[in-house]
Structures are given as C-alpha cells and as structure tokens.
Amino acid sequence: MRAVAVSEFGATPEIMELPVPEPGPGQVQVRMRAAGLNPFDWKVADGVLGGKVRHRFPLVLGGDGAGEVAALGGGVTGFAVGDLVFGLFMRLRDGGGSYGEYAVADAVGLARIPDGVAVTDAAALPMAGTTALNLVAEAGVARGQTVLVVGATGGVGTFVVQLAAARGAHVIATARPDAADAVTALGAAETVDHSAGPVAAQVLARYPHGVDVLIDVASDHAGLVAVAPAVRWGGVVGASTWAVDPEALAARGIRGFNLDNRPTAADLGQVADEVAAGRLRVAIESVVPLEEAPAALARSRAGSARGKTVITI
Ligand SMILES: NC(=O)c1ccc[n+]([C@@H]2O[C@H](COP(=O)([O-])OP(=O)(O)OC[C@H]3O[C@@H](n4cnc5c(N)ncnc54)[C@H](OP(=O)(O)O)[C@@H]3O)[C@@H](O)[C@H]2O)c1
C-alpha cells in the first residue's frame, strides 16, 4: 500500500510502498479515505516521543483518520465490515499511522461516522475536536463568562471558539487581520490581533478586571506568562501546549491546568454528533491528496494554520 512515512527521526516524510497492516486482537483494519493533519504528526516524526515510547520504522505518520472497516481482529464487537468509522490510528510501536491506504486502530479508539457527516470532516475531528471539548469542559466554561482563546484560528482553536460560544460565553479570540472574519463567523464576539502587540494589554484595555477564563492552544511557557495577567483573580487557565505552571498561577488565585488529551470513543461520538446536528462546524483550510501530505506537513510546521488540513487517500 502507499503511505507517507519516515525512515528515522528527523527524516523528510515521503511516499513509500509498505505492507498492509493486519489487525490483531481487539483491532480494526480500515481502508482509509481521509486523514486529519495535526502538528503532533510532524513533532512525532522529529522524535518528540523518542526515548519515551518505542517506535518502529518505517513509521507511517498521522493519528487522525476516517474510512471504511475492511477487517476485524479477534474479539471485536460493535463494528462490521463496511462501516464508516473515524478515530485514532497512531501506533508508534508497530509503525502504524493514518497517512496510508490501510491503517489499523484499537477498536476502543474508533467511533461510527454519523449520517450526514462528511468523511473529510470526520477525519479532521478526532484530536483537535476532542481536545477542544475537554479543554472547555475542564475549564468549566459557563454562560456569561468572558473567555479569551489564544490560538483561536488553528485546528484546536476553531473548535474551542465554537464550543465556548455554544455554552453561552463571550468569546474573545486571537486572530491576525486575515482570519478575524472567519473566527467571528464561528462565534467569537470580538477579536484581538496578537501580531499588533501584547494580547494581555489589549484585553485589559477592554476588560480592566480581566477575563474569567483563558484557553491557550498556542503559547509556550514564556508566552503564557505574558498573557496570563489578562485573567482575573480567581479565574481559570487551561492549555494544550504544556505551558501552564499551576503553582505560579495559584499564587494569583487562578486554577491552571495542562490538558493531556486522551480521547475516548464517547468523546469521539460526542463531537461527531455535534457536527451531525449542525451545532459544530469543521473549519477546513485545505484538502490535499496523499502525495501532497509531505508539503502540507511542512506548511503546518511553518505556522499560520487557519483550521484543519485534511489528506484524502
Ligand atoms: N495536549 C494535548 O493533548 C494536545 C492535543 C492537541 C493539540 N495539542 C497542541 O496544541 C497546539 C495547537 O494545535 P493546533 O492543531 O490547533 O495547531 P495549528 O492548527 O497549527 O494552529 C495554531 C494556531 O495558533 C496561532 N498562533 C500561533 N502563535 C500564536 C500566538 N502567539 N498567539 C495567538 N495565536 C497564535 C496560529 O496562527 P498564526 O500563525 O496566524 O498566529 C494558528 O492559527 C499544538 O502545539 C498541538 O501540538 C496538544
């Protein structure tokens, strides 16, 4: 089968001809139709988990994907050959990922694609959609709160904006001028241009007492330290980038957390149901064929994502 893989950490991802992966007990083999790109995919290729988890090479890249069930491993119930499914396909120990014609997933990491949800939308949902879901839930976003979303224009942020607005929050989204209209259309009440000056100062000029919640999916530790003063005493700060120092924030009465998103099948089903019901939109920036996945990964690395990139297979 054709797949996009790396031969070692740091190698340039390339199209390779590789054996079709076979499902073991508890696993499902899927004929992939689409894969969703996440920054984590190129971070894994760079070796971010090297030394922590065993990797097998060639390593097929990609975690998120969607397709049609082709075969079931022993003991799998709840799925049948031909079902349209989506979910989590990264299996570093076996060299498996979603950027290939076939991929294998643990059955517990898959959910059915509901009627009315496009395969490309389903492929874009798993990591970004459930990370947003769990960030908003763990932050306890509630009606009437002011919620600052840093990184609002990317894959996770476009979902955070919608989910926080759906809970009745007043969402302030970071956006460069080119992306302000799009993030407003997703539910942001107002935007802050993070390229025009420090975000904290811009937000405090409008909200002198600070916002109730900061959800940050873009800042490194120094960036988080710089933006955190925008949060009021007793507020909440959650990040997907491991930038939060909970103890430092506690000194200001703020509850801080770093989300390590481990999506369940129930999480996957919940975000897909929101899409099926028309309450959540998948902001897709580009759809590219498998051959162009290496170039798409390079673009993701360069930054300026505007929603999700999907790879069709
Ligand atoms: N902890 C977990 O379990 C978990 C799960 C999922 C994702 N993540 C991580 O979360 C991060 C976001 O993922 P993603 O998929 O949303 O990435 P993405 O699609 O690449 O989007 C990043 C967005 O952040 C914006 N941005 C960059 N620097 C910014 C700044 N200083 N202030 C405001 N906005 C800024 C970018 O726009 P501009 O370039 O125009 O500024 C872009 O729109 C990544 O680091 C990813 O690895 C972690």
UniProtKB/TrEMBL annotation:
CDD domains in the cross-refs: MDR_like_2
SUPFAM superfamilies: GroES-like, NAD(P)-binding Rossmann-fold domains
Coiled coil regions in record: none
Gene3D superfamilies in the cross-refs: Medium-chain alcohol dehydrogenases, catalytic domain (3.90.180.10), NAD(P)-binding Rossmann-like Domain (3.40.50.720)
Domain Enoyl reductase (ER): 10-311
Top-level taxon in the UniProt lineage: Bacteria
Molecular function as annotated in GO: oxidoreductase activity
Stored InterPro entries: ADH-like_N (IPR013154), Chloroplast_QOR (IPR052733), ER (IPR020843), GroES-like_sf (IPR011032), NAD(P)-bd_dom_sf (IPR036291)
Protein name: NADPH:quinone reductase-like Zn-dependent oxidoreductase
Taxonomic source organism: Longispora fulva
Taxon lineage: Bacteria, Bacillati, Actinomycetota, Actinomycetes, Micromonosporales
